[in-house]
Amino acid sequence: MRWGGLPRFLIFSFPRHRNRQSVPGRLVNWIAGINTMGRIVCVANQKGGVGKTTTAVNLTASLASLGRKVLLVDIDPQGNATMGCGVNKHELQSSTCDVLLGEQKLQAAITRSPTADFDVLPANSDLTAAEVGLMSAPLREKRLSLALEGADERYEFIIIDCPPSLNMLTLNALVAAHGVLIPLQCEYYALEGLSALINTIRQIQSSRNPNLKIEGILRTMHDPRNRLTNEVSAQLMHYFKNHVFSTIIPRNVRLAEAPSHGLPILLYDSNSRGAVSYLALASEFLQRNGQTLNATA
Ligand SMILES: Nc1ncnc2c1ncn2[C@@H]1O[C@H](COP(=O)(O)OP(=O)(O)O)[C@@H](O)[C@H]1O
Ligand SMILES: [Mg+2]
Predict the structure, then answer these.
(1) Ligand 1, closest atom to CA 80?
(2) Average pLDDT, stretch 172-197?
(3) Which of 40, 22, 55, 35 has the alpha carbon at shortest distance from 183?
(4) Least distant ligand from the CA of 221
(5) Is 256's C-beta closer than 6 angstroms to any atom of ligand 1?
(6) Would you kindly state where each structural domain of the chain is located, as residue ranges?
(7) Dist. CA 80 → ligand 2 center (Å)
(8) Domain with residues 30-288, CATH architecture
(9) Could you tell me the pTM of the whole model?
């Protein structure tokens, strides 16, 4: 139960402030055991092509547009999140790879998105080498967690885009995170993959990161004309209930076009259904984290 037993009205009845969560709001969250300062959320699903990167980039951009200080961490050697927010992965001075290998400080490797209002820890194919290097390194699964120490004072949210496998890089993200956001395409094999991921999350909860929570399951690339999509969606709601975000991300071609311009959807086409749905997701995400909605956009 996310609200730690507190009546909901307590969470939403405090005065609203621009840009930041109110002090009483933070106090209530602290009492309720919800960490909202520097909350680290990884976007994970071992299946490729389910909308992880699209969600990581656009949730980050939408939270930023609502006035939150956000860091996007790319921990996928494909560097798609890096490119998707306008940073050229072929011209990086330093990257997630250097940070994980302890060769660069986090702050020195972070760059500003040239197109949007948030910071990025960028990545490229060097991360593949880092993964190999990490295999024999001490504290290999805690490298990201250790690197992010202190960043929670500079950012309200840190969103991590994971690669499409349950490898050492994803493990680093799951060990560092407070929450896992699981994008899921409502198709035949989706639920099977989901149970494997949830088993992994349980193992990590019981061994390395007892604070890890399921932030929510997000239905992506949703096409309501497809009968199977609706069936899988109904099953998800039945089994996972309030762990499923009520916001649904529709299939929308503008979302697929935006990364090729290095832009989050809000900056590429703010009127598109994709932009509206990711903004709604950011609002729901903030509400689930006990924050009032003080939009500045
Ligand atoms: N809601 C959507 N509607 C249309 N295309 C989408 C949507 N979400 C993602 N895509 C496209 O689908 C492909 C896979 O999405 P991506 O976010 O890269 O998945 P992952 O990171 O899980 O591999 C990309 O080409 C992306 O642009
Ligand atoms: Mg991806």
Answers:
(1) 18
(2) 92
(3) 55
(4) 1
(5) yes
(6) 30-288
(7) 6
(8) 3-Layer(aba) Sandwich (3.40)
(9) 0.88
